[in-house]
Amino acid sequence: xxxxxxxxxxxxxxxxxxxxxxxxxxxxxxxxxxxxxxxxxxxxxxxxxxxxxxxxxxxxxxxxxxxxxxxxxxxxxxxxxxxxxxxxxxxxxxxxxxxxxxxxxxxxxxxxxxxxxxxxxxxxxxxxxxxxxxxxxxxxxxxxxxxxxxxxxxxxxxxxxxxxxxxxxxxxxxxxxxxxxxxxxxxxxxxxxxxxxxxxxxxxxxxxxxxxxxxxxxxxxxxxxxxxxxxxxxxxxxxxxxxxxxxxxxxxxxxxxxxxxxxxxxxxxxxxxxxxxxxxxxxxxxxxxxxxxxxx
Length: 296
Ligand SMILES: [Zn+2]
Description:
Helix content is 37%, strand content 20%. It contains ten helices and twelve strands. Bound molecules: zinc ion.
């Protein structure tokens, strides 16, 4: 059996799968992250969740896969680049390994998403032989994961696939990463809401902006910004890793125009006369993160 934990900003979810070949859910359970109470509380909540699962199914695991916001620095062993600030600079792997007495495999949540959709999700359903896959999460933030031959590309600094922090414009907003104009500060749900508020003076959720794009010129402009920079941003990834399949996830993956207008925009910037790489919708929904963690 495989044990996976998805550490999110508000919830920590745990899952046990029967095996990689037979990914049937044995148990699934959630607890609150309680990020505001600080790092030690988060570690304690992970511990309680794992103990709860092990007691329920009467099985003790040697290994635990965990997906986190941010990434573990392979040199220092400390978590970095997380938008959950209380985790940054903390030795999460070491602390969990000591507290739980297990081998801990950590990767960021976008890598987990990409792995799950590749091995168990829509890539596996439609392109089971794909060896080079790029997975994208577009929601409140923007993340990405590269899967080569069924494995994540962690990278020498643990930042493999992080297209959300590649720069696409000089006049974008400031990002928590310390730079300006990253993909995440231009096309994440949060960034688009801010952009709309700046041009219209009105505060709306992205779904509301999207719903009024045909009647409201500011909503239209915000939507066009998403399409343009989705294409530009993603073309940078395509030009480097040239994936066989791209799979989208996160809240914005429901926007149908990304697969049509966004695709055409991407096509414009790819360094090739033709472009036919498929972009797929996700299959696993919110479960991709926790499935991917178990697959680590
Ligand atoms: Zn950034």
